[in-house]
Amino acid sequence: MERFLSNAVNKIDAKGRVSVPAHFRSVLAKRGFDELYALRCLDQPALDVGGMDLLERYEARIEAEDPFQQTADDMSYFIHGDGAFLKLDQDGRVTVNDFIREQTGISSEVAFVGRGTFFQMWEPSRLATHARQVRERLLRLRSVGDSRRSEDPE
User: pTM for the complete prediction?
Assistant: First the structure.
């Protein structure tokens, strides 16, 4: 299966549209998607974006919950109430609307980041900060793992 990999920054045009990176469009086309599902990230100023498979995966998770519990209701609100469909035009562009701007702070450029089965849309400087933080966390984990391995007797 094709994956969303790598990242790119594209400018928003005068009509408020941005081109989805060609590789991402290729993945979407192979999956047969011309409409995108976008969901506000819960913990980051970004959007998770994918095809209908992304929405279906979230809906399957809701179905696994007890419908009489608050968790199912909260998940439905998050997935349906905080989600939106984005339409790809014939040139592979999406309109950067208020839904996108309010969540991300995007103004003139959009950073697209592959996340395997979906991709994210970020304001570029916020993504750069996030990327540094991710690398710092991973370096700390690596250091802890290295120190544990050196303490283990062989």
Answer: 0.88
